[in-house]
Amino acid sequence: MSFASNQADRIHNRIRSLTYSADTPELACRALDIDVINVYMPDTTYGQSVISNRCKTIFVDQEIEYGFRSFVIFHELGHCMMHLNESTPFMRSSMVGGWIPRIEREANEFSLRYLLDGLEPDTIRAMSKSQIVDYLGVPQSYARFIIY
Fold it and tell me: How far is CA 20 from CA 14, 28, 142, in A?
């Protein structure tokens, strides 16, 4: 299991202890006192997290579809929880190519693991990685970040 997957499991369990449901990104962020703001962003930018004086805010493109929106918010939540001292300016479409920075890979793994934590284990076992990202509404290019 990767660092990001372990962190996603830990955060998911922590949020479940604070609130009835930890599966929606808004409830998860609210439980951790992180604001989520919908804004218009350029076509290649999906989200951004900003941490200032211990205040955390996630900005998400208001025009992306619901499934991918959840992925983006959990991706930025991963940055807020795992990369406090590292610069993570934007989640862009260019961050899914052959090489991506370590912190982007970890945030992608965190997001997908968090989303998988909300599914029944039998559902996950019955699907391939490709089917899982389709089910979650996430582009196929992110399937490689699924860690069971």
Answer: 11, 10, 29
